[in-house]
Design goal:
The protein is α+β, with helices and mostly antiparallel strands. 16% of the residues lie in helices and 40% in strands. It is built from 5 helices and 17 strands.
Length: 297
């Protein structure tokens, strides 16, 4: 048995998209978490940061399930969400309602804003990423003190990191630094922050340079993946953290190795306000997963 897939990417954050909708629902029986490490391997598999699975649901146009490259649950991914939206519109033929498409995710039902579409092609998507969660039990992080968690000290590899902790449906630990993020040893420090015992569900780790109030530069170590070209939920968490610390404007361009994302959040007076992300979505190629690759060893 071979399984068709579509390779997609948003700002360099790349995924295999598996259509398990309708008559393809049997693909939900595949043990994707067990197969993900092999499929996502860039030498012995197709290569990707994770797998997106399109499933049927009664509460939205479709459900997006994310499996990280290590087989863990991705919960939410903004870059994947934009690519998923593009697929539903261009390949499945779903039509936005009042300019929006509702998609169920691990962070709840989120809205893809397609009101500015001028053709049948979706090149950029504005996403209502929902609210940011700032309480310790929501991130989650082991922290004593009230929300928001602006300063949480973690010591790894003999260095102290002053982290701001935010959940966008998945945990993020944001570190602002004057050290050039391009020179930071993220390969060494990233996994130590990700697996630190203060984060019971592990965490994504973002390092940030504030270039200007409307310009942030970041790199990311993604939980269950490692270094990636971009992280949409991470960019959202970075702006929220920057706003809480008085470092950024309500609308900011976040520059990542894979490109720029526009993030907006005006929630200082209303923490329940949604975070909005705008960025690109692209298809790379169609392919087939060979039976040999799908055999669990």
């Amino acid at each position: 048995m071979s399984i068709p897939f579509l390779k997609v990417q948003g700002a360099g954050n790349d995924f295999l998209l598996i259509d398990a909708l309708g008559e393809n629902a049997h693909l939900n029986d595949v043990d994707w978490p067990a197969l993900a490490p092999r499929i996502c391997d860039r030498h012995f598999g197709v290569g990707a940061d994770g797998i997106l699975i399109a499933q049927d649901t009664d509460v939205a146009a479709a459900r997006m399930v994310i499996v990280n490259s290590d087989g863990s649950d991705g919960e939410m991914c903004g870059n994947g969400f934009r690519c998923f939206t593009k697929y539903l519109v261009e390949r499945v033929g779903m039509t936005p309602t009042d300019g929006a498409l509702a998609i169920e995710t691990g962070a709840g039902v989120l809205q893809a804003d397609l009101s500015t579409m001028t053709s049948a092609t979706v090149d950029r998507v504005r996403v209502d990423m929902g609210r940011a969660w700032l309480q310790a039990n929501k991130v989650p992080v082991v922290h004593e003190g009230p929300a928001p968690i602006l300063h949480h000290e973690v010591v790894v590899a003999g260095r102290s990191f002053d982290l701001t902790c935010v959940s966008m449906g998945n945990p993020h630990a944001v570190w602002f630094t004057d050290e050039d993020v391009d020179d930071f040893p993220l390969t060494e420090i990233g996994p130590l922050i990700e697996t630190h015992p203060d984060f019971p569900k592990k965490t994504n780790f973002e390092i940030v340079n504030v270039l200007a109030p409307d310009q942030l530069k970041m790199r990311v170590w993604e939980r269950g993946v490692g270094i990636t070209m971009a992280c949409g939920s991470g960019a959202c968490a970075v702006l929220v953290a920057a706003r809480l610390r008085g470092l950024a404007d309500p609308t900011t361009t976040v520059s990542l190795p894979g490109g720029n994302l526009e993030i907006a959040w005006d929630g200082l007076d209303d923490p329940s306000a949604s975070v909005y992300m705008t960025g690109p979505a692209s298809f790379s190629f169609d392919g087939q997963l060979d039976a040999n690759l799908l055999s669990v060893r």
